[in-house]
Write a structure and sequence with these properties.
The complex is a heterotrimer of chains A (about 500), B (about 500) and C (about 500).
Chain A lengths: L1 H9 L1 H10 L3 H29 L2 E4 L10 E4 L1 H24 L10 H17 L3 H20 L4 H32 L4 H10 L6 H16 L8 H7 L2 H30 L2 H24 L3 H16 L2 H4 L5 H36 L10 H4 L1 H14 L6 H16 L3 H25 L13 H17 L3 H8 L10
Helix pairs in contact in A: 1-3, 2-3, 2-5, 3-4, 4-5, 4-11, 4-15, 4-20, 5-6, 5-11, 6-7, 6-11, 7-9, 7-10, 8-11, 9-11, 10-11, 10-13, 11-13, 11-15, 12-13, 12-19, 13-15, 13-19, 15-17, 15-18, 15-20, 17-19, 17-20, 18-19
Chain B lengths: L2 H16 L10 H7 L5 H9 L5 E4 L6 E4 L2 H24 L5 H20 L3 H19 L5 H32 L7 H7 L3 H16 L7 H8 L2 H22 L8 H22 L5 H25 L4 H25 L8 H18 L6 H12 L13 H26 L7 H20 L12 H6 L1 H26 L1
Antiparallel strand pairs in B: 1-2
Helix pairs in contact in B: 1-3, 1-5, 3-4, 4-5, 4-11, 4-14, 4-18, 5-6, 5-11, 6-7, 6-11, 7-8, 7-9, 7-10, 9-11, 10-11, 10-13, 11-13, 11-14, 12-13, 12-17, 13-14, 13-17, 14-15, 14-16, 14-18, 15-17, 17-20
Chain C lengths: L2 H22 L5 H28 L3 E8 L2 E7 L1 H24 L6 H20 L3 H19 L5 H32 L18 H18 L8 H4 L5 H10 L1 H17 L1 H6 L3 H20 L4 H21 L3 H32 L10 H4 L1 H15 L5 H15 L4 H26 L19 H19 L7 H14 L1
Antiparallel strand pairs in C: 1-2
Helix pairs in contact in C: 1-2, 1-4, 2-3, 3-4, 3-9, 3-14, 3-19, 4-5, 5-6, 5-10, 6-7, 7-10, 9-10, 9-14, 10-13, 12-13, 12-18, 13-14, 14-16, 14-17, 14-19, 14-20, 16-18, 16-19, 17-18, 17-19
Classes of the chains: A mainly alpha (about 500), B mainly alpha (about 500), C mainly alpha (about 500).
C-alpha cells in the first residue's frame, strides 16, 4: 500500500508531465484534471496512513541510505504534501479556466506545472542533501519556465532575473553540500546529525551550513536578497504567481529550516541566529512598507510575500538555545505560518487575478466601486487579507500567537514588536485595497464578470486559511505523531 | 386603604401624567382645553376624602416606591390641587389657539410632577416628580415664544439644572448616610452624619432655587411675567411651595438644633423679604411686582424655617405654621396673578367692586384683620416669640416680621398702582370670570374651613383679631402712609 | 454534548449564518433578505431569552475545544454575558427593522446587511466568550465587520473615517494581543471566572501584572473610547444612522467597556485589582473622559458628532462604575452598560430620522422639528433626558446607583463628577430640545420626504419609539425582576459572593 502511495506521489507527476507535453493546452487540461484528482487522493491517502501508523523512513526502490534515495515520511512532510495537493490542485483548476488556450506557448503550462509538483513532493519528503538539491532544481527551473509563460518582454526579463537568482542560490547550496560531504562523509541530514552527536564539532564546519542557508535564503527571497521576487511574482499569470508565492518559496525555506533544526545547535551560533532573525524582521518591515507603496494590485501581493517570508526566518533565533517548549512553540508557529500563508496567498493571487480580469486593469485605483459588482472575489481577497494581517480566527493568527508565546517565553521580546508591527503594516496594505474597492466616486460601470468556477476556487482557499486557526491544534497534532524510523540510518 | 383609595391615589398622579397622550392624535384640541380643570380633581378628592396617614407601597417602582400622605403633605396637596383646578378653569378661557396642545401637554406634566412630589415618600419618586415639574415647567415659561420668554426660560432652566444637581447630590449623600431610600429616614441620618453641613447646604440651595432664596431667585422675576397668566399663578402659588416642601421633608428639623444654619436662614429670609420689596416697588409690570412679592413672602417663611432649624423643640409647630402660611400665600397669590389678566368692567359700580376684589387677597397678604393673612401672621408671631427660641437672631424676629409686614403692604400698593395703569377694560369670557372668582373666594374662605394641622397654637378667633388688630394694622398703615407720601412727593415734583 | 452546551453556539451561529445567506442573496431580493434578517433576529432573541431564564435558574451553558496548542476556544453563558447578549439581541432586532427602512432604495444592501449580521455575530461572540483569547478573537472580528459599514457610503470622507477607525482599532488590537499573550505566558490560559484569578498573586508578579493591566486597558480603551483613544469615534459618524446607532449603543464601544469589565472582574478579580492599586487611576481617567467628552460635545453643531462625543462621555460611566470598589458601584456601572445602550440608540435612531425625513444634519436646522415629527422628537426628548440623568428615566437609575456606590467606596469626589457631567449633559441636550419644541420652523426643511400617515416611514418610526418606551420602563420599573438593574444586581451578587 505504502509503496503505491509513494510511487504515486513522486513518479506519477512526472508521468503527467510527459503526457501533457505531447498535447495542446485544452487536452492537457483534461489530463491534468484527472491527474490533480489522483494526486489529491494519493496525498490524502498518505496523510491518513501516517496519521494512523506514524511516520517512517522509506528507502526508494528498496535501497537504503547512504547509497539509495532515502525518503523521510513524517507528520510534517505529509502535511506539506497534502497542502501542496490542495494549493497546487486549486491553482491547476483555476489555471485551466483562467489561461487562454489559444496562445500557442501556453501548452507548456501543464508540463511545467507537473514538474513543479513532483519537485515539491521530492523536497518535502527528501531525506538527504543531494536529493533535496535535485528537487530544488526541478522546482526552480519549472518555476522560471512558468514565469516566462507570461510571454511579454517584461515577463522574460523577470524570469531571467529569477533564473539568475535561482542558479546563484543553487550554486551556494551545492557548494555547502560538497563541503558537508567532505567533512562528514554522508549526505543524509540524519546521518550528519548522528555524527555530530558522537564527535566534537570540527572547526569551520559552520561554513558549509552558512553557505547552504545563504543559498536557500536567496531562493526564498529573504531581505536583502528579495529583489528578484516581486517582478517575477507580479508579472506571472495569477495562478502561477499563486503557486510561486504559496509553495515554491516555501520549499527552499523548508530545507533551510530542516537544516537548522537538525544541525543549527551544533554548527550555528547565537549571532548567526539573531542576524537571520534581524534580516527576517527587516523583510517584514521593508516588504510591508513597499507593499504599501505599490500602485499595481499584484505587486502589492508580491511584496506582501516578501514580508510574510520574513516572519518565517524568526524560526532561527527562536529555536536556538531555548527550552524545549519554546522551540516546539516556534516550530508549530512556523508550520502554521507556512500553511496559512500558502493558502491565503494562493487565494489572494487567484482573487487578484479575478479582480484584474474584471476591471481590465491591474492598477489599484481602477478598483473603485468594484465592491458593488464583484463581492465574491473581493470577499475572498478580503478573507485572505485577514489571514495575512494575522487577525483571529485565521491560521495566520494562530501562528502569530504561537510565535508571540515563543518570543515571550524565550525572553527575546524584540521579536514581539516585529510581530505586532508586521501585523499592523500588513493591515495597512490590505486595507488600502479594501478602501479602493469601496470608493464610489468613479463612474465606471463596465465590469466583466468572471465565471463562477474562477470565483469559487479562491474562496475555498481563503476559507481554509480562515478555518486553519480554528483547527490548528488538530493540524499540529499530526506533527507530533510517533516517528517509527527514529534513529534508523 | 381600600381599593378605591388605591385607585384614587394612582389616578390623582397618573391622570395628569397620561393626559398629554391625547396630543398624539390631532383633533382633540377642544377636549384638551376643557379637560384642564378636571386634571387635579382626583387629587383634590384624595386630599379631602382620605384621612392622613395612609401609605401605598409600589415595590416595583424605581428603587422601591412608597407614596403616602401625612398632615403636612395633605396641606400641600390641597393647596396644589385647588390652585391648579382654579388656574385650569381660568386657562380654559384664557388660552389662545396657538400651540394650545403643546401648552396642555406641559401643563399636564407639570401638574403631575407637582402632585406626585407631594405624595411621594421614597426619595427616587420624590426626586422624579420634582424634576418632572421643573423641566415641564420650562414649557410653560417659554410658551409665548418671545425673545424675552426665551431668555427667561434659559435662566430658569440653567438655575433649575443647577438646583436639581444640588438636590441630587444632597439626596445621594443623605441616602447613603441613612442607608435608606425613604425620605422620612433622612433627617435623623443627616443630623448624625459627619458631612451634615454639606448635605444641609446642598439641600437648602437645591430647593432654594425653587423657593426663591436670595441669589437663587433670579429666574423668578423673569419667568413669572412672561409665562401665560394661569401658569404664573401656579408657578408662584404652588410650584415654589414645592421647594418649601422639599426643605420640610429633608432637613433635620426636630432632630438637632443648628443655630448656625438657623441664623443663616434668618438672615436669608430677612434679605429676601425686605430686599425683594425694595426691588419690587421699582418694577413697572404687575406680574413682576407680584413675583418679587412672592420672593418676599417666601422670605418670611424662611425666617420661620431658620427658627425651626435652630430650635429642635419648637420645630414641629413651626413646620405646621409654615405649611399654613404657604397655603394662605399660595391661594392669595394665585388669585392676584389671575387678576392681572382679568379685564375691568366698564360700568363704574362694577369697576369699584372689581378693584376691591382684586385688592382683597393683597390686603389679606398684608395681614388685614379677619383675613387668612391675619390668622397666619398671628400664628407666626406667636410661634416666633423670642422667649420660645434660643439662638442669636431670636431677638430680631418680631422686628423682622413687622418690617416684612410693611414690605408686603408696600408691594401690594405698588401692584395695585401698576395694575391700574396696565389693566385692560372690557368684558371677559365666562371661564375667566369663573376661574378668577373662585380663586378670590377660596383665597378668602378656604383657609377657615380647613382642619388645622396638629401642634399649632389654636387658630386665632375673631376676638383675638379684634384684640390684636392694632398689631396687625400698624405695619399696613405705615406702609400706606409711606406710599401716600411718595405719591404725593412725586405728583408735586411733576407739577 | 447536551443541548445546553450548544445553545451559545446556536446563538452565535444564528447571525453568522444569516450573514452568509444574505451575502449570497442577490441585491434585488428585498423581501427575502428582510425576512432572513428579521427571522434571524427573532430567533436569536428567543434563544437569548431561553438562556437568560436558564442562567437565572443557575444552568451552565458552555462549550469549549482546544484551538491553538495551549489555548481553548470557550463559549459560555454566565449572568454577565447574558447582559451583553440580551442587549445586543434586543437592539439588533430593532436596528434591523430600522435599517431596512433606512436603506430603502439605496445601493449595496446585500453587502450592508451581510456585514451588519456579521457585526452582531461578533458582538454575540464577545458576550459569550469564556476566556480572554476567545474574547480577543471576536473583538478583532468586530473591527473587521464594522469597517465596511463605516465606509458604506463610499465617499472620500467615509473612507477617511474608515481609515482612522481601522488605525485606532487595529493598533488597540495589537496592544491587546500583546497583553493577552504576555498574561498567558505568565499564568496560563485564563478563563473568565467570577472573582478573578489573582486573588493571592505572588508579590513578585505585581510589576508584570500592573503593566499587563495597563496594556489591556489601553487595548480595550480604544473601542471604549477612553480619552485619549477616542479620536476615531466622532469621525465614524459619517456612517449610515443604523450603523452609528449600533456602533455607539451596542457593538463597538460596549465591546471595549465589556472587555474592561471582564478584565477587572473575571481575570484580575475586583479585590486583586484594587489591591494592585489599579482601580483608582482608571477611575480618574474615566472621570476625566466623562467630562472631556461632554465639554467637546458642547461645541459640536453637527447632531451626530454631538451624540458621538456624548458617547465618549457616557461609556466612561460604565468604566467609572466598575472602578468603584463595592457591589453597589459595580451595579451602577453594569446597569449603565444596558441603559446607555438603550438611550443612545434612541438618540441615534432619531438623528437618523431627522436626516432621512427632513434632511436635517445640523443642530441649527432643527428649529420646530417637534411639530413636524412629534413621535421622533418625543423619543429624542426622552433619550436626552435619560442621558442627563433626569429621573425616573434610565440614566437616573445609573447615576443614583453609582453615586451610592461611590459613597460606599469612600470616593466622594465621584459625586462631584457625576453632577458636573449631568450639568454638561443638560447644557448640550436642553438647547436641542428647546429648538425642537419651542422654536418656530425657519424656512423649508432641507430635504423633506413624505410617507403618508405617519411622520416618517413606519420602519423608521417604531424602533426609536420602542427604545424610548424602554428608556422609561427600565427606569420606572427598575426594581422589577429581570429589569436591567435587578439583573446587574444578580451579576454583582454572584461576582462578590465568590
Amino acid at each position: 500500500m505504502t509503496l503505491w502511495l509513494m510511487a504515486g506521489l513522486l513518479f506519477t507527476p512526472l508521468a503527467w508531465a510527459v503526457l501533457t507535453l505531447l498535447t495542446d493546452f485544452s487536452r492537457g487540461r483534461l489530463v491534468s484534471w484527472v491527474g490533480i484528482l489522483v494526486q489529491a487522493l494519493v496525498s490524502l491517502g498518505l496523510w491518513l496512513a501516517v496519521n494512523r501508523d506514524g511516520g517512517f523512513y522509506y528507502g526508494l526502490g528498496g535501497w537504503d541510505a547512504p547509497l539509495g534515495i532515502e525518503l523521510r515520511v513524517d507528520g510534517l512532510a505529509v502535511t506539506f504534501v497534502l497542502l501542496t495537493a490542495v494549493v497546487a490542485g486549486a491553482c491547476g483548476l483555476h489555471a485551466g479556466v483562467y489561461i487562454d488556450p489559444d496562445k500557442p506557448w501556453h501548452r507548456y503550462f501543464w508540463p511545467l506545472f507537473w514538474f513543479l509538483w513532483s519537485g515539491l513532493n521530492a523536497v518535502w519528503l527528501g531525506g538527504d542533501l543531494f536529493n533535496l538539491y535535485v528537487g530544488l532544481e526541478l522546482i526552480s527551473l519549472s518555476a522560471v519556465g512558468l514565469v516566462a509563460l507570461g510571454g511579454q518582454a517584461g515577463a522574460l526579463r523577470a524570469s531571467l532575473r529569477y533564473l539568475l537568482a535561482a542558479l546563484l542560490g543553487s550554486l551556494a547550496y551545492l557548494l555547502g553540500v560538497a563541503l558537508m560531504y567532505g567533512q562528514f562523509g554522508t549526505l543524509s541530514i540524519a546521518g550528519v546529525a548522528t555524527w555530530l552527536s558522537d564527535h566534537p564539532v570540527p572547526a569551520g564546519s559552520g561554513m558549509a551550513l552558512a553557505l547552504m542557508i545563504a543559498g536557500l535564503a536567496l531562493k526564498t527571497a529573504l531581505f536583502p536578497l528579495h529583489r528578484w521576487l516581486p517582478p517575477a511574482h507580479g508579472i506571472a499569470k495569477s495562478p502561477v504567481s499563486a503557486l510561486l508565492s504559496a509553495l515554491v518559496v516555501k520549499a527552499s525555506f523548508y530545507i533551510a529550516a530542516r537544516l537548522w533544526l537538525e544541525l543549527g545547535q551544533p554548527l550555528g551560533s547565537l549571532a548567526a541566529a539573531q542576524l537571520i532573525g534581524l534580516l527576517g524582521s527587516a523583510a517584514v518591515v521593508w516588504g510591508s512598507w513597499l507593499a504599501c507603496r505599490q500602485q499595481r494590485l499584484k505587486q502589492v501581493v508580491a511584496y506582501s510575500s516578501v514580508a510574510q517570508i520574513g516572519y518565517l526566518f524568526l524560526l532561527f533565533p527562536l529555536t536556538f538555545s531555548v527550552s524545549e517548549t519554546v522551540s516546539l512553540q516556534a516550530q508549530q508557529g512556523m508550520t502554521l505560518q507556512v500553511i496559512s500563508h500558502a493558502l491565503a496567498k494562493a487565494a489572494m493571487f487567484l482573487a487578484a487575478g479575478n479582480l484584474i480580469l474584471s476591471v481590465g486593469s491591474n492598477r489599484i485605483d481602477a478598483l473603485g466601486g468594484v465592491s458593488r459588482f464583484l463581492p465574491f472575489s473581493l470577499f475572498s481577497f478580503g478573507l485572505a487579507g485577514v489571514s495575512l494581517m494575522s487577525l483571529p480566527p485565521t491560521g495566520g493568527f494562530a501562528a502569530k500567537w504561537l510565535l508571540l508565546q515563543a518570543s515571550l517565553g524565550s525572553g527575546q521580546w524584540w521579536w514581539v514588536l516585529v510581530l505586532l508591527a508586521g501585523g499592523l503594516l500588513s493591515a495597512a496594505y490590505v486595507f488600502r485595497i479594501y478602501r479602493a474597492s469601496f470608493l464610489e466616486s468613479s463612474g465606471t460601470d463596465q465590469f466583466f464578470h468572471p465565471s463562477r468556477s474562477l470565483e469559487v476556487i479562491p474562496m475555498i482557499l481563503a476559507i481554509l486559511a480562515l478555518g486553519m486557526g480554528l483547527v490548528s491544534d488538530q493540524v499540529l497534532s499530526v506533527m507530533a505523531l510517533p516517528f517509527a524510523g527514529e534513529g534508523a540510518p | 386603604m381600600t381599593a378605591f383609595d388605591v385607585v384614587l391615589v394612582l389616578l390623582a398622579v397618573c391622570l395628569p401624567l397620561l393626559y398629554p397622550a391625547m396630543a398624539v392624535a390631532a383633533g382633540y384640541e377642544k377636549a384638551m382645553r376643557y379637560a384642564l380643570p378636571l386634571l387635579p380633581l382626583p387629587a383634590l378628592m384624595l386630599a379631602l376624602g382620605t384621612a392622613p396617614g395612609w401609605q401605598l407601597e409600589l415595590p416595583w417602582l424605581l428603587n422601591g416606591g412608597l407614596w403616602g400622605m401625612d398632615e403636612l403633605r395633605r396641606l400641600f396637596l390641597l393647596l396644589t390641587a385647588i390652585l391648579w383646578t382654579l388656574a385650569g378653569v381660568f386657562a380654559v378661557g384664557y388660552l389662545k389657539a396657538h400651540h394650545l396642545q403643546r401648552f396642555c401637554v406641559f401643563w399636564g406634566l407639570t401638574l403631575a410632577g407637582n402632585l406626585g412630589l407631594t405624595v411621594a415618600v421614597d426619595i427616587a419618586s420624590f426626586y422624579s416628580f420634582f424634576a418632572l415639574m421643573t423641566f415641564a415647567g420650562y414649557g410653560l415659561v417659554v410658551h409665548e415664544g418671545t425673545a424675552e420668554a426665551n431668555r427667561a426660560g434659559r435662566v430658569y432652566l440653567a438655575m433649575a439644572v443647577v438646583g436639581e444637581m444640588a438636590i441630587l447630590a444632597g439626596l445621594l449623600l443623605a441616602s447613603a448616610a441613612a442607608d435608606s431610600q425613604m425620605l422620612p429616614d433622612l433627617p435623623a441620618a443627616i443630623a448624625e452624619a459627619p458631612q451634615r453641613d454639606l448635605m444641609i447646604g446642598l439641600l437648602i440651595a437645591g430647593f432654594g432655587v425653587k423657593a426663591g432664596l436670595p441669589l437663587l431667585h433670579f429666574w423668578l422675576p423673569l419667568a413669572h411675567p412672561v409665562a401665560p397668566t394661569p401658569a404664573s399663578a401656579v408657578l408662584s402659588g404652588a410650584m415654589i411651595k414645592a421647594g418649601l416642601l422639599g426643605w420640610l421633608v429633608t432637613l433635620p428639623f426636630g432632630e438637632t438644633s443648628l443655630p448656625m444654619w438657623g441664623a443663616l436662614m434668618v438672615v436669608a429670609g430677612a434679605v429676601a423679604s425686605l430686599g425683594a420689596a425694595a426691588l419690587g416697588v421699582c418694577q413697572q409690570r404687575p406680574k413682576t411686582v407680584l413675583a418679587y412679592s412672592s420672593i418676599s413672602q417666601m422670605g418670611l417663611m424662611v425666617l420661620m424655617m431658620g427658627a425651626a432649624l435652630a430650635n429642635s423643640d419648637v420645630a414641629q409647630p413651626l413646620i405646621a405654621g409654615m405649611a399654613l402660611f404657604a397655603l394662605h400665600h399660595g391661594l392669595a397669590k394665585g388669585s392676584l396673578f389671575l387678576s392681572t389678566a382679568v379685564a375691568i368692567p366698564l360700568a363704574p359700580g362694577g369697576r369699584w367692586l372689581m378693584w376691591v376684589l382684586i385688592a382683597l387677597p393683597g390686603l389679606s397678604l398684608a395681614g388685614l384683620p379677619f383675613t387668612s393673612g391675619a390668622a397666619s401672621k398671628l400664628v407666626m408671631k406667636e410661634l416666633l416669640e423670642p422667649d420660645n427660641l434660643e439662638f442669636a437672631m431670636a431677638a430680631y424676629l418680631p422686628m423682622l416680621i413687622s418690617a416684612g409686614g410693611i414690605a408686603t403692604m408696600l408691594l401690594v400698593w405698588r401692584f395695585l398702582w401698576v395694575q391700574r395703569a396696565n389693566a385692560s377694560y372690557g368684558g371677559n369670557s365666562a371661564m375667566i370670570w369663573l376661574g378668577w372668582g373662585m380663586a378670590t373666594v377660596s383665597s378668602l374662605g378656604v383657609f377657615w374651613l380647613l382642619p388645622q394641622p396638629g401642634g399649632l397654637p389654636p387658630t386665632p378667633g375673631l376676638d383675638a383679631m379684634v384684640n390684636q388688630s392694632w398689631g396687625l394694622l400698624w405695619p399696613a398703615l405705615a406702609a400706606t402712609l409711606l406710599a401716600s407720601v411718595v405719591l404725593a412727593a412725586r405728583s408735586i415734583k411733576q407739577r | 454534548m447536551t443541548l445546553n452546551a450548544w445553545l451559545p453556539v446556536f446563538a452565535l451561529m444564528t447571525s453568522l449564518v444569516a450573514s452568509l445567506v444574505i451575502f449570497a442573496l442577490p441585491e434585488r431580493g428585498y423581501r427575502l433578505r428582510t425576512a432572513v434578517n428579521l427571522g434571524a433576529a427573532v430567533f436569536k432573541l428567543a434563544l437569548v431569552a431561553v438562556m437568560v431564564w436558564g442562567v437565572f435558574q443557575g444552568v451552565e451553558y458552555g462549550v469549549s475545544f482546544t484551538m491553538v496548542p495551549g489555548v481553548d476556544f470557550v463559549l459560555k453563558a454566565d449572568a454577565l454575558s447574558m447582559m451583553f447578549a440580551g442587549l445586543s439581541a434586543v437592539l439588533w432586532f430593532l436596528t434591523t427593522i430600522y435599517a431596512v427602512g433606512y436603506l430603502e432604495d439605496s445601493p449595496n444592501r446585500s453587502r450592508f446587511f451581510g456585514f451588519f449580521s456579521l457585526c452582531v455575530a461578533s458582538t454575540m461572540g464577545i458576550a459569550l466568550a469564556g476566556n480572554l483569547f476567545t474574547f480577543f478573537l471576536f473583538y478583532e472580528m468586530l473591527t473587521l465587520a464594522t469597517y465596511p459599514l463605516v465606509v458604506h457610503r463610499g465617499t472620500e470622507r467615509a473612507l477617511k473615517a474608515g481609515r482612522t477607525y481601522v488605525i485606532y482599532t487595529l493598533t488597540g488590537g495589537a496592544v491587546l494581543l500583546l497583553a493577552i499573550a504576555w498574561l498567558q505566558g505568565l499564568a496560563g490560559d485564563l478563563h473568565f471566572q467570577e472573582g478573578g484569578h489573582f486573588g493571592g498573586a505572588d508579590p513578585a508578579m505585581h510589576g508584570s501584572l500592573t503593566l499587563i493591566f495597563v496594556l489591556l486597558i489601553a487595548g480595550l480603551g480604544v473601542k471604549a473610547a477612553i480619552f485619549p483613544l477616542h479620536g476615531w469615534l466622532p469621525q465614524a459618524m459619517v456612517a449610515p444612522a443604523p450603523v452609528s446607532a449600533l456602533l455607539h449603543a451596542v457593538a463597538v464601544v460596549k465591546a471595549g467597556a465589556f472587555g474592561i469589565v471582564r478584565v477587572v472582574y473575571d481575570i484580575y478579580g475586583i479585590e486583586a485589582s484594587s489591591a494592585l492599586g489599579l482601580l483608582e487611576p482608571l477611575a480618574w481617567l474615566a472621570a476625566f473622559t466623562m467630562l472631556y467628552g461632554s465639554v467637546r460635545a458642547l461645541f459640536q453643531m453637527d447632531l451626530k458628532r454631538r451624540l458621538a462625543f456624548s458617547t465618549v462621555s457616557q461609556v466612561s460611566y460604565i468604566i467609572l462604575g466598575i472602578c468603584l470598589f463595592g457591589p453597589v458601584g459595580a451595579t451602577g456601572g453594569l446597569v449603565h452598560l444596558l441603559h446607555q445602550g438603550i438611550m443612545k440608540i434612541t438618540l441615534f435612531f432619531c438623528a437618523g430620522n431627522y436626516a432621512e425625513t427632513l434632511g436635517i444634519h445640523r443642530i441649527d436646522e432643527m428649529d420646530g422639528a417637534g411639530r413636524r415629527m412629534p413621535g421622533t422628537s418625543l423619543a429624542f426628548t426622552l433619550g436626552a433626558f435619560g442621558m442627563i440623568g433626569a429621573p425616573p428615566l434610565a440614566g437616573f437609575i445609573t447615576k443614583w446607583t453609582m453615586g451610592t456606590g461611590a459613597l460606599a467606596a469612600d470616593m466622594d469626589w465621584v459625586i462631584a463628577v457625576l453632577v458636573l457631567s449631568s450639568v454638561l449633559n443638560a447644557a448640550y441636550f436642553l438647547p436641542i430640545l428647546h429648538r425642537l419644541w419651542f422654536r418656530e420652523q425657519s424656512g423649508k426643511w432641507p430635504h423633506e420626504r413624505y410617507w403618508g400617515r405617519l411622520e416618517t416611514s413606519a420602519w423608521l418610526f417604531w424602533p426609536p419609539v420602542l427604545t424610548a418606551v424602554m428608556t422609561v420602563l427600565v427606569g420606572v420599573l427598575a426594581s422589577f425582576p429581570f429589569s436591567p438593574l435587578s439583573w446587574a444586581e444578580l451579576v454583582v451578587l454572584r461576582a462578590y459572593s465568590s
